[in-house]
Design a protein that fits this description.
Layout: E1 2-7, E2 11-17, E3 24-29, H1 42-53, E4 57-60, H2 85-112, E5 121-125, H3 132-139, E6 160-162, E7 167-170, E8 173-176, E9 180-181, E10 186-187, H4 191-198, E11 202-204, E12 210-216, E13 222-228, E14 249-257, E15 260-267, H5 268-275
Parallel strand pairs: 2-7, 3-4, 4-5, 5-6, 8-11, 11-13
Antiparallel strand pairs: 1-2, 3-14, 7-8, 9-10, 12-13, 14-15
Length: 277
Protein backbone atom coordinates (compact mmCIF):
# COMPACT_ATOMS: atom_id res chain seq x y z
CA UNK A 1 0.00 0.00 0.00
CA UNK A 2 1.41 3.35 -1.06
CA UNK A 3 0.71 6.41 1.09
CA UNK A 4 1.31 9.94 -0.12
CA UNK A 5 0.96 13.26 1.69
CA UNK A 6 0.80 16.90 0.71
CA UNK A 7 0.39 19.61 3.32
CA UNK A 8 0.10 23.33 3.82
CA UNK A 9 -0.77 25.56 6.76
CA UNK A 10 -4.49 24.85 6.51
CA UNK A 11 -4.84 21.27 5.34
CA UNK A 12 -2.91 18.03 5.02
CA UNK A 13 -3.88 15.86 2.04
CA UNK A 14 -3.37 12.11 2.02
CA UNK A 15 -3.94 9.52 -0.69
CA UNK A 16 -4.02 5.77 -0.17
CA UNK A 17 -3.03 3.62 -3.16
CA UNK A 18 -3.37 -0.15 -2.89
CA UNK A 19 -1.54 -2.20 -5.49
CA UNK A 20 -3.95 -5.11 -5.17
CA UNK A 21 -6.92 -2.90 -6.01
CA UNK A 22 -8.91 -3.90 -2.92
CA UNK A 23 -11.30 -1.31 -1.43
CA UNK A 24 -9.91 1.29 0.97
CA UNK A 25 -11.18 1.23 4.55
CA UNK A 26 -11.01 4.02 7.13
CA UNK A 27 -11.73 3.60 10.84
CA UNK A 28 -12.79 6.74 12.72
CA UNK A 29 -12.49 7.16 16.49
CA UNK A 30 -14.36 10.18 17.90
CA UNK A 31 -13.72 11.87 21.26
CA UNK A 32 -12.40 9.35 23.81
CA UNK A 33 -11.83 11.94 26.61
CA UNK A 34 -9.67 9.90 28.94
CA UNK A 35 -9.26 11.42 32.40
CA UNK A 36 -8.50 10.25 35.94
CA UNK A 37 -11.01 8.08 37.80
CA UNK A 38 -13.10 6.92 34.82
CA UNK A 39 -13.32 3.50 33.18
CA UNK A 40 -10.93 3.10 30.24
CA UNK A 41 -11.40 -0.57 29.35
CA UNK A 42 -13.30 0.41 26.20
CA UNK A 43 -9.95 1.49 24.75
CA UNK A 44 -8.93 -2.19 24.70
CA UNK A 45 -12.23 -3.11 23.01
CA UNK A 46 -11.51 -0.52 20.33
CA UNK A 47 -7.97 -1.84 19.82
CA UNK A 48 -9.22 -5.41 19.46
CA UNK A 49 -11.85 -4.33 16.93
CA UNK A 50 -9.25 -2.43 14.93
CA UNK A 51 -7.16 -5.60 14.68
CA UNK A 52 -10.19 -7.54 13.45
CA UNK A 53 -11.00 -4.95 10.78
CA UNK A 54 -7.43 -4.06 9.76
CA UNK A 55 -8.29 -0.69 8.24
CA UNK A 56 -5.91 1.06 5.88
CA UNK A 57 -6.25 4.34 7.77
CA UNK A 58 -7.12 5.05 11.42
CA UNK A 59 -8.27 8.58 12.24
CA UNK A 60 -8.66 9.78 15.80
CA UNK A 61 -10.58 13.05 15.67
CA UNK A 62 -9.14 14.39 18.94
CA UNK A 63 -10.16 15.06 22.54
CA UNK A 64 -8.45 11.90 23.73
CA UNK A 65 -6.81 13.76 26.61
CA UNK A 66 -9.69 15.41 28.46
CA UNK A 67 -7.37 17.72 30.49
CA UNK A 68 -9.88 18.72 33.22
CA UNK A 69 -7.09 20.38 35.24
CA UNK A 70 -6.88 23.05 32.52
CA UNK A 71 -10.61 23.59 32.15
CA UNK A 72 -11.77 27.20 32.28
CA UNK A 73 -15.44 26.31 32.71
CA UNK A 74 -15.55 25.24 36.35
CA UNK A 75 -12.44 26.81 37.89
CA UNK A 76 -13.05 27.63 41.54
CA UNK A 77 -15.87 25.13 42.03
CA UNK A 78 -15.87 22.19 44.42
CA UNK A 79 -15.60 19.76 41.51
CA UNK A 80 -12.31 21.34 40.42
CA UNK A 81 -10.54 20.48 43.67
CA UNK A 82 -7.76 17.90 43.34
CA UNK A 83 -7.25 18.09 39.60
CA UNK A 84 -3.65 17.82 38.45
CA UNK A 85 -2.00 18.17 35.03
CA UNK A 86 0.24 15.15 35.60
CA UNK A 87 -2.75 12.91 36.37
CA UNK A 88 -4.53 14.10 33.23
CA UNK A 89 -1.53 13.23 31.06
CA UNK A 90 -1.12 9.84 32.72
CA UNK A 91 -4.78 8.95 32.18
CA UNK A 92 -4.65 9.82 28.48
CA UNK A 93 -1.37 8.01 27.96
CA UNK A 94 -2.77 4.93 29.71
CA UNK A 95 -5.80 4.99 27.42
CA UNK A 96 -3.57 5.24 24.35
CA UNK A 97 -1.42 2.35 25.64
CA UNK A 98 -4.58 0.24 25.97
CA UNK A 99 -5.71 1.14 22.44
CA UNK A 100 -2.35 0.35 20.88
CA UNK A 101 -1.55 -2.88 22.76
CA UNK A 102 -3.69 -5.19 20.55
CA UNK A 103 -2.37 -3.50 17.39
CA UNK A 104 1.26 -3.94 18.43
CA UNK A 105 0.60 -7.53 19.49
CA UNK A 106 -0.89 -8.35 16.08
CA UNK A 107 2.03 -6.77 14.25
CA UNK A 108 4.48 -8.74 16.42
CA UNK A 109 2.56 -11.97 15.67
CA UNK A 110 2.69 -11.32 11.94
CA UNK A 111 6.41 -10.60 12.09
CA UNK A 112 7.11 -13.79 14.06
CA UNK A 113 5.15 -15.83 11.53
CA UNK A 114 6.88 -14.08 8.62
CA UNK A 115 3.58 -12.72 7.36
CA UNK A 116 3.11 -9.37 5.68
CA UNK A 117 2.90 -6.89 8.55
CA UNK A 118 -0.21 -4.70 8.54
CA UNK A 119 0.80 -1.09 9.13
CA UNK A 120 -2.14 1.30 8.93
CA UNK A 121 -1.63 5.01 8.53
CA UNK A 122 -2.63 6.61 11.84
CA UNK A 123 -3.65 10.26 11.95
CA UNK A 124 -4.57 12.20 15.09
CA UNK A 125 -6.20 15.63 14.81
CA UNK A 126 -5.79 17.52 18.08
CA UNK A 127 -9.06 18.61 19.72
CA UNK A 128 -10.04 21.58 21.82
CA UNK A 129 -9.30 19.64 25.02
CA UNK A 130 -5.68 18.99 23.95
CA UNK A 131 -5.57 22.62 22.85
CA UNK A 132 -6.10 23.62 26.49
CA UNK A 133 -2.33 23.20 26.85
CA UNK A 134 -1.65 25.85 24.20
CA UNK A 135 -4.19 28.17 25.76
CA UNK A 136 -2.70 27.71 29.24
CA UNK A 137 0.82 28.51 28.03
CA UNK A 138 -0.42 31.53 26.08
CA UNK A 139 -2.21 32.81 29.19
CA UNK A 140 0.80 32.19 31.45
CA UNK A 141 4.12 32.10 29.54
CA UNK A 142 5.94 30.88 32.67
CA UNK A 143 4.43 27.46 31.87
CA UNK A 144 6.33 27.19 28.59
CA UNK A 145 8.58 24.15 28.77
CA UNK A 146 6.65 22.71 31.70
CA UNK A 147 3.71 21.46 29.66
CA UNK A 148 3.41 20.68 25.98
CA UNK A 149 2.05 18.20 23.44
CA UNK A 150 5.35 16.34 23.85
CA UNK A 151 3.84 14.94 27.07
CA UNK A 152 1.45 12.86 24.94
CA UNK A 153 2.64 9.41 23.84
CA UNK A 154 1.32 9.75 20.28
CA UNK A 155 4.40 9.92 18.11
CA UNK A 156 6.10 7.00 19.87
CA UNK A 157 3.29 4.85 18.48
CA UNK A 158 3.54 6.26 14.97
CA UNK A 159 0.60 8.68 14.96
CA UNK A 160 0.86 11.62 12.58
CA UNK A 161 -0.34 14.58 14.64
CA UNK A 162 -2.15 17.55 13.11
CA UNK A 163 -2.70 20.88 14.90
CA UNK A 164 -6.09 21.79 16.34
CA UNK A 165 -8.54 22.56 13.49
CA UNK A 166 -6.11 21.76 10.68
CA UNK A 167 -8.07 19.66 8.19
CA UNK A 168 -6.85 16.22 7.13
CA UNK A 169 -8.19 15.37 3.67
CA UNK A 170 -7.80 11.63 3.26
CA UNK A 171 -8.90 9.92 0.04
CA UNK A 172 -11.32 12.78 -0.59
CA UNK A 173 -12.82 12.89 2.95
CA UNK A 174 -12.13 15.90 5.17
CA UNK A 175 -11.50 15.18 8.85
CA UNK A 176 -11.12 17.67 11.70
CA UNK A 177 -12.06 17.83 15.36
CA UNK A 178 -14.75 20.20 14.16
CA UNK A 179 -15.44 22.50 11.23
CA UNK A 180 -16.13 26.16 11.80
CA UNK A 181 -18.93 28.40 10.61
CA UNK A 182 -18.91 32.19 10.44
CA UNK A 183 -16.24 34.69 11.36
CA UNK A 184 -16.38 33.75 15.06
CA UNK A 185 -15.22 30.23 14.25
CA UNK A 186 -17.95 28.37 16.10
CA UNK A 187 -18.57 24.68 15.25
CA UNK A 188 -21.13 23.98 12.56
CA UNK A 189 -24.47 23.02 14.07
CA UNK A 190 -25.52 19.93 12.10
CA UNK A 191 -24.38 17.41 9.52
CA UNK A 192 -26.64 19.09 6.95
CA UNK A 193 -25.05 22.47 7.70
CA UNK A 194 -21.65 20.83 7.35
CA UNK A 195 -22.43 19.73 3.79
CA UNK A 196 -23.98 23.09 2.92
CA UNK A 197 -20.88 24.86 4.20
CA UNK A 198 -18.12 22.63 2.83
CA UNK A 199 -19.66 20.95 -0.28
CA UNK A 200 -17.66 17.77 0.23
CA UNK A 201 -17.59 14.75 2.51
CA UNK A 202 -16.60 15.77 6.04
CA UNK A 203 -16.32 13.92 9.35
CA UNK A 204 -16.00 15.62 12.74
CA UNK A 205 -16.28 14.92 16.46
CA UNK A 206 -16.73 17.46 19.28
CA UNK A 207 -20.54 17.34 19.31
CA UNK A 208 -21.94 14.98 21.95
CA UNK A 209 -24.04 12.90 19.57
CA UNK A 210 -24.12 11.50 16.05
CA UNK A 211 -25.71 13.08 13.02
CA UNK A 212 -25.48 12.25 9.33
CA UNK A 213 -26.58 13.90 6.11
CA UNK A 214 -26.23 13.02 2.43
CA UNK A 215 -26.06 15.00 -0.78
CA UNK A 216 -24.65 14.81 -4.31
CA UNK A 217 -22.17 16.88 -6.23
CA UNK A 218 -22.97 18.31 -9.62
CA UNK A 219 -21.47 15.23 -11.28
CA UNK A 220 -23.78 12.95 -9.30
CA UNK A 221 -21.15 11.57 -6.90
CA UNK A 222 -22.28 11.18 -3.29
CA UNK A 223 -21.00 13.27 -0.39
CA UNK A 224 -21.65 12.67 3.30
CA UNK A 225 -21.54 14.86 6.38
CA UNK A 226 -20.97 12.96 9.62
CA UNK A 227 -20.93 13.96 13.29
CA UNK A 228 -19.22 10.90 14.78
CA UNK A 229 -20.53 11.01 18.38
CA UNK A 230 -18.33 10.01 21.32
CA UNK A 231 -16.32 6.94 22.29
CA UNK A 232 -16.23 6.76 26.08
CA UNK A 233 -18.31 5.21 28.86
CA UNK A 234 -18.61 7.90 31.53
CA UNK A 235 -21.27 10.57 31.81
CA UNK A 236 -20.25 14.21 31.85
CA UNK A 237 -20.90 16.19 35.03
CA UNK A 238 -21.88 19.30 33.07
CA UNK A 239 -24.64 17.42 31.21
CA UNK A 240 -28.02 16.35 32.57
CA UNK A 241 -29.86 13.05 32.79
CA UNK A 242 -31.56 14.03 29.55
CA UNK A 243 -28.49 15.16 27.64
CA UNK A 244 -25.97 12.48 28.69
CA UNK A 245 -27.56 9.83 26.45
CA UNK A 246 -25.27 10.41 23.48
CA UNK A 247 -24.51 7.71 20.94
CA UNK A 248 -21.20 6.07 21.83
CA UNK A 249 -18.97 4.16 19.47
CA UNK A 250 -16.79 4.41 16.38
CA UNK A 251 -17.22 4.28 12.60
CA UNK A 252 -15.90 2.11 9.81
CA UNK A 253 -15.96 3.74 6.38
CA UNK A 254 -15.85 1.03 3.72
CA UNK A 255 -15.20 1.33 -0.03
CA UNK A 256 -13.68 4.80 0.29
CA UNK A 257 -13.16 6.46 -3.07
CA UNK A 258 -12.93 10.16 -3.94
CA UNK A 259 -14.91 11.17 -0.85
CA UNK A 260 -17.66 8.56 -1.21
CA UNK A 261 -17.97 5.73 1.31
CA UNK A 262 -20.33 3.25 2.97
CA UNK A 263 -20.56 4.10 6.66
CA UNK A 264 -20.88 1.51 9.42
CA UNK A 265 -21.56 2.69 13.00
CA UNK A 266 -20.15 0.37 15.67
CA UNK A 267 -21.50 1.03 19.16
CA UNK A 268 -19.64 0.62 22.45
CA UNK A 269 -22.38 -1.84 23.42
CA UNK A 270 -21.38 -4.05 20.49
CA UNK A 271 -17.68 -3.64 21.21
CA UNK A 272 -18.13 -4.64 24.83
CA UNK A 273 -20.15 -7.71 23.88
CA UNK A 274 -17.73 -8.87 21.19
CA UNK A 275 -14.40 -7.68 22.55
CA UNK A 276 -14.86 -7.09 26.28
CA UNK A 277 -12.79 -9.29 28.55
Amino acid sequence: MKKTKQANKYTAQYTTVKKDGTPIRHLVIPDTQCKPDVFLDHMTWVGNYIVDQKPDVIIHIGDHWDMPSLSSYDTGTLGFEGRRYKKDIEAGNKGMDMLMAPILAEQARQKRNKEKVWRPRMIFTLGNHENRITRAVNDDPKLEGLMSYADFNLEQYGWEVLPFLQVATIDGICYAHYFTSGVMGRPVSSARALLTKKHQSCVMGHVQDRDIAFDKRGDGSRITGLFAGICYQHDEEYLTLQTNGSWRGLWVLNDVQDGAFDELPVSLTYLEREHGM
